[in-house]
Amino acid sequence: MVEFVLVTMIALVFTLAAAQLALFLFERNVLIGSLAEGARVGAAAGRTVGDGQSRAAELLSQSVGGLVASSVTITGQSSGGLVVLHAAGTLPSFLPFVPGLPVRLTASMHKEELL
Fold this sequence. Notes:
The protein has a three-stranded antiparallel beta sheet. Helix 1 packs antiparallel against helix 2. Helix content is 56%, strand content 24%. By secondary structure, it is of the alpha+beta class. The protein is rod-shaped, with a radius of gyration of 19 Å. The relative contact order is 0.18. The longest helix has 42 residues. The protein has one domain.
């Protein structure tokens, strides 16, 4: 009985650690995808960097929820025909004893030319 409890506790810790890692990777991938789409929107002809920032924030909020979206700040800039979006913040953890994962991500796209 004691061995079963010890093995179960260890298995539970490893399972929760794997689930937390998977969640961090999912949130990070959603964030970089949202940034890339936002940069694409901001680089479209007739669009601004603000449009791209709004789109990236909207996609992030729809995909992973408000808690993650509120913990990450998305900023953008345009220079030399290049739209660049930056995300900085901390991805929250669902486990109380595991700290959040700090992230700093960037996505860029060349501005479309007006024909």
